[in-house]
Amino acid sequence: MSAQLADNELLITRTFDAPASLVFSMWSDPEHFKNWMGPETFDCPVVEMDFRVGGAYRAMIRSDEHGENWFGGVYKEIERYSRLVFTFIWDSGGPSDGVETTVTILFRETGGKTEQIFHQAGILNADRRDSQFGGWSSAFEKEHAYLMQFVKVEKE
């Protein structure tokens, strides 16, 4: 991934104090996924995953303020614990509906910590990219909180 991003690209990096296998499972296990997906104030009550290359996923996040928001896509590449590529499409009546983006996530484990490098390409425009930056960043804060609770349970 290039250090210089186009207006239709988003890059967010987070480091978690957890092994890559656990961080990867936040994306591949529907029970984990539903516990953190969506910005703060959203929950994710519906997740369907056919987690294999060519398999589809579909999920819904909702909040009192924004209602239900559906999205889905197809898994393009899966390298367990190191790389995940999938399409991402909103289909709930918003400005980015039907715009297929490609998400690539790299998981780099060093010393028991995992760097999650999230890259999304094909975003409609810079305004939508900036909006999605806030949404994904908030979701990744929830991912971190959920993951850390799980790590605490695992260490006890």
From TrEMBL:
**Highest rank taxon of the organism:** Bacteria
Looking up SUPFAM superfamilies in the UniProt record yields:
Bet v1-like
Q: Which residues form the Activator of Hsp90 ATPase homologue 1/2-like C-terminal domain?
A: 17-142
Q: Gene3D superfamilies from the xrefs?
A: 3.30.530.20
Pfam families the UniProt entry points to: AHSA1
- Taking the record's annotation, the residue ranges forming a coiled coil are none
What family does the database annotate?
Belongs to the AHA1 family.
UniProt name for this protein: SRPBCC domain-containing protein
Q: What organism is recorded for this protein?
A: Hyphococcus flavus
